[in-house]
Amino acid sequence: MGLRQQDKVQTIMLIEDEEDILLVYRDFLERRGYRIEVSAPTANEILRDYEAYQPDLVLLDYRLPGYMNGLQAAEKILQKDPMARILIVTAYEDAKKELAENKFFNGKKISILIKPVQLGQLARLIARL
């Protein structure tokens, strides 16, 4: 992966299998000036799209269809690009514990946001990343 043009998040790759939630996030973030790339929520497509889009941030759901959850997908992305910024959204409090216990994520730019998500809170977190 090449060096990012700027530190500020401008392009977000959005991975969410519930279409209504995906549309809310996409519309909200586009109105705030972000360019949104939507990826299908399966492992191979996530990795392929990450390389194609080279987003500044990956916003993904923890619960994904198939054999991989959001943390596993994040690990695959970070193996390819250790500087990737990832925000996982989930209703599962245990995801924070899972993240903290996995030494691979130490020093990486990855955060977990627990649902229900307030859009203002989401915007503030993205701005800080």
TrEMBL record:
SUPFAM superfamilies: CheY-like (SSF52172). Keywords: Phosphoprotein. GO terms for biological process: phosphorelay signal transduction system. Transmembrane segments: none annotated. InterPro entries: Bact_response_regulator (IPR050595), CheY-like_superfamily (IPR011006), Sig_transdc_resp-reg_receiver (IPR001789). Residues 11-129 form the Response regulatory domain. PANTHER family: RESPONSE REGULATORY DOMAIN-CONTAINING PROTEIN, STRESS RESPONSE REGULATOR PROTEIN 1. This is Putative signal transduction response regulator, receiver domain protein. It comes from Nitrososphaera gargensis (strain Ga9.2).
